[in-house]
Design a protein that fits this description.
Structural class: alpha/beta
CATH class of the largest domain: Alpha Beta
CATH topology of the largest domain: Rossmann fold
Catalytic activity: Couples ATP hydrolysis with the unwinding of duplex DNA by translocating in the 3'-5' direction; ATP + H2O = ADP + phosphate + H(+)
Radius of gyration: 29 Å
CATH superfamily of the largest domain: P-loop containing nucleotide triphosphate hydrolases
Protein name: Replication restart protein PriA
Subunit structure: Component of the replication restart primosome.
Cofactor: Zn(2+)
GO molecular function: 3'-5' DNA helicase activity; ATP binding; DNA binding; hydrolase activity; zinc ion binding
Shape: globular
Bound molecules: adenosine-5'-triphosphate, zinc ion
Helix content: 25-40%
Number of helices: 20
Amino acid sequence: MPGLERSPEIRPPEEQTMAIVRVAVAAPLPELFDYRLPAGWLDCEIGRRVLVPFGRGRRLGLVVDRQPESAVADHRLKEIEHCLDDGPLLTPQDLELLNWASAYYHCPPGEALFTALPARLRRADTDFKERRRGWRIPIDARAVDDGLLARAPRQRAVWSILQAHPEGIDEASLREQLGDCRAALRSLERKGLLEPASAEVPLDDGSPPSAGTPAPLPELNAEQQAAVDRIDQTLGFACFLLDGVTGSGKTEVYIRLILNTLARGRQVLVLVPEIGLTPQLAERFAQRIPVERAVLHSALAERERASSWLRAARGSARLVLGTRSAVFTPLPELGLVIVDEEHDVSFKQQDGFRYSARDVAVRRAQMTDCPVLLGSATPSLETLRNAELGRYRHLRLRQRAGGARPPRLLLADIRSQPLVTGLSHALLTRMGEVIEAGNQVLLFLNRRGFSPVLTCHDCGWISVCRHCDARMTLHRGRGRLVCHHCGDQADLPVHCPYCESPDLRPLGQGTERVEDSLRQRFPGIPLARIDRDSTRRRGELERVLTAAQAGAYPILLGTQMLAKGHHLPGVTLVGILDIDHGLYGSDFRAGERMAQLLIQVAGRAGRAELPGTVLVQTRHPNHPYLQQLLRKGYGAFAAAALAERADAALPPFSFQALVRADSREEQFALEFLERARGHAIALAHQGIQVWGPAPASMERRAGRFRAQLLLQSPERAPLHALIRVLLPALRGLSGNRRLRWSIDVDPLEML
Ligand SMILES: Nc1ncnc2c1ncn2[C@@H]1O[C@H](COP(=O)(O)OP(=O)(O)OP(=O)(O)O)[C@@H](O)[C@H]1O
Ligand SMILES: [Zn+2]
């Protein structure tokens, strides 16, 4: 090997055996690449980032293995250009998990690895340091007497800090210490007493959240205590399902387990489905858990996220709370994993590296040999099935905590009833009573915007999207038509674009329209609308929720953002405006989703001393799903739904993977999938079913025609064996550059 011959004297003999590093390059390529260590290098450890020559350019990569030699011919082997980190970013255990996930989800290793890193570390130009705007005292001013500043105390404060930092200090740190000091800085600069400098700041030195003030813990009830005991007694890996009705105090159980795990010197990872849930939970943890915490979600600034990640990886943050991608955070002393609202589909990434954070969490706990807890009031059918099979241990909390009573569910049959923007007389009357009594109402409508379509009353024109098989939603506040599928926007037309009639009318209602109507109906009553449009501004959701929790709004109106996990003690009435589309969805999981959403929204009612009522408006009051949920609850519904899935051999009684394809030209995606089908049938063992290809239910989206091919198997292993041989064949097929395709293992959404 030429690399070795050039510098034989530098390397000790045992190091000479590892001259080749295998690199996962940050690109969606299925293979790993071999590189040579440059002459004179002793090592480049597994888990470090490297810069490597690649094609005509260079790329960032991560060292995943070292080997004595390579199968690649010597003259074709290139050398690593740079090794970026002082030490490994990922440990062999972290890599083992990512390798497993990359193999299980059939995602290229480089793509999986770099998805798991915070964005800051996906770029080559950072080395855990950041250059920031800063200041220092010019050399010729260093001898100046600060008596000069006797009459300017702020300037003097700045000056004395700067004197202690001749190398310069960054402005943000100055402001942290002194508050806003921009004016003082400007004056000092004018006097020639300081000059701009750039300062280097280590990335993981973000101020950690302060330790909590351990507030008194409420005494656990018998069921909660039993759950804590069962989990605490576990040595090593076990997966628990904490199946607790809404308001049963699951979070209290988490807190107790977290404290116990921390006391044993281990770290804890808590996953939540939504960014919106992190501030509330973070706040609850902050009050009760006196330890350094790190929060990780996509709304954080890149710097904060990298800082959280590094503090977790270095072991200084003991408790990590985050959304989906936090499941890959390195935690050297991990002792417990908690997945809250485990049924939530947000745990599944829907593009690129299509992993389920819940399932990866279970696998991670198994690899780490520690317990994992999946919590929900409405467990997914997959998880319930695993509990039934004894793979997961089923723990139940049947009662609401602290004496709160379960909410009363009522159906309001709205067939042939007059509705005011979708609200029945029965609902409006009850709302009036609740507001009168000084309590809160929560209205749930899972549709944002003013109305889902604008139509011409004269010719019947409707506002369709140019790029999708979909209608454009009317957003009156913004004065725009917006497609919720591709994001395309248009000005609100004044005349019908077809017949020029001025009589354009909104059809149906979204949250914006219901808000308008309620403000007229209940003038002067504070109302908060909570959906993606109303909470666009950073910190807005948190602000509204905190105020809502304190009772500031008698009326809360929102989409599913409002449905999940929030504790709103003043809510005594929940109105569910439109659940019917969930009863007849085309996806086989539509019923399960509807039931989960209904029970979760309903669970916001009556969580404190006051009893709660839930009014579900429907045109199908006799629908068996609704009847079952109302009379017997989620458990009975889930048992019946599982029996149906068993009959139909659908998941969790079988395993699926979906090959999706899309193209600008209508035929390419289908043609590709036709050929994929041929390969799949030729390669598959008996028992594997190949369905399709079929166009997606919304065939055209963002200008692309979409179709899919479904692979299904009664066993997991043969399905994965098939995918392993199928993928190389598909890569060979997709010569057409304008075609995009992907594989989705354990798909949650059939599009
Ligand atoms: N043992 C207890 N004694 C008194 N109050 C309790 C107890 N456990 C929990 N609570 C209180 O009950 C309320 C609901 O608890 P929590 O939010 O933990 O429920 P949850 O099961 O997580 O709810 P959900 O699934 O609906 O989000 C909280 O105000 C909590 O402080
Ligand atoms: Zn569109």
